[in-house]
């Protein structure tokens, strides 16, 4: 009887430990359980070189979302970026999405600038005004060969 009691206690302790590990995995991995408090917004860029999935989206220096996916539109040959923006952030149809470089390493992120319009973007809408990333290698190549 005492052995069964000890085995039960060990089983409960292991179950609690596994639950804690699962919780920490989800929290540290920044996964969301049920869709979270974000909405999708799209932007089209001529070039997204250096931009990766999971990169943060900023407005006025504050992180407001992240890049969820990057794909190529087959008919236009333009990159389509899907971003998840926090629900409390309101974007207008005159917002500008720019790909910027952070730090000396050259990590890319998306910077959103507010527009002056009263028309609010709804979930799934597309930001029309975009600025692609500055390609430093292309710029150096042009300078080196005298095409600047």
Task: Write up what this structure looks like.
The chain is α/β, with parallel strands linked by helices. The protein folds into 2 domains: 31 residues; 97 residues. It is built from 2 helices and 8 strands, in the order αββββββββα. An 8-stranded mixed beta sheet has the order 7-1-4-3-2-6-5-8, with no helix packed on it. The longest helix is centred in the first third of the chain and has 27 residues. It is elongated and about 85 Å long. The protein starts with a helix and ends with a helix.
Unreliable segments (pLDDT under 50, ≥5 consecutive)?
none
Overall mean pLDDT score?
85
Succession of helices and strands: HEEEEEEEEH
**Radius of gyration over C-alpha positions, nearest whole angstrom:** 23 Å
Structural class from helices and strands? alpha/beta
Beta-strand share of residues: 35-45%
Domain module count: 2
Largest beta-sheet characterization: 8 strands, mixed
Enumerate how many helices there are, as a single number: 2
How many β-strand stretches?
Answer: 8
Ends: how far apart? 86 Å
Question: How much helicity do the residues have?
Answer: 10-25%
Shape: elongated
| Widest beta sheet: strand line-up | 7-1-4-3-2-6-5-8
Quickly describe the structure.
With 148 residues, the chain is of the alpha/beta class. 24% of the residues lie in helices and 35% in strands. The chain folds into 2 domains: 1-31; 38-134.
Feature tags:
148 residues, 35% strand, eight-stranded mixed beta sheet
Layout of secondary structure:
Elements lengths: L1 H27 L9 E8 L10 E4 L2 E12 L4 E9 L9 E7 L4 E7 L12 E2 L1 E3 L4 H9 L4
